[in-house]
């Protein structure tokens, strides 16, 4: 198996998924849950730079995350809370949504949290891993369309992101399988009403098919 060829295919997917939008100040930074602690690091950075006055961490999946992987397991939101506080974000500036188990629920349950708390936030910076930014945007255009938002992730290339993941104990196979899984979702989820359609360039789809043939299909969604 040619690792350079695999990386070339994976780099095409990464660059496609990492939709770039200009940052602007917002009422709140909204972080969608994942296994990647860098999203919490980035949220704290933006908070400390004055981009928003509040952070919402959404994610109910309990899993080991970053430096916290050897501590008592916590939900994604709780683990991200700990990371943000360690970076100097005041606890009172953080809201936790601890029930969501997927991207759609991140939006649905966070909207419920806003309503229940009577919070009149109108603008958001949505934060996720780089290769989930396009799907986050496409989902928000359905689930969060009444709000003003931009999507953002810690600036990265495929190579720098993969290097950091390997240091965190996240394998290359998992990263690439996550990316093929996200592209599959971008293809099939519009028909289910989960997100808006996004044009997928032919070269990106060809790279996706090649990666599937090479076995990077461990994170695919069911199509039923």
From TrEMBL:
Domain DUF218 positions: 27-153
Segments passing through the bilayer: none
Gene3D superfamilies for the chain: HUPs
CDD domains, A to Z: YdcF-like (cd06259)
One Pfam family cited in the UniProt record for this chain: DUF218
Domain of life: Bacteria
Signal peptide: none
Name of the protein in its database record: YdcF family protein
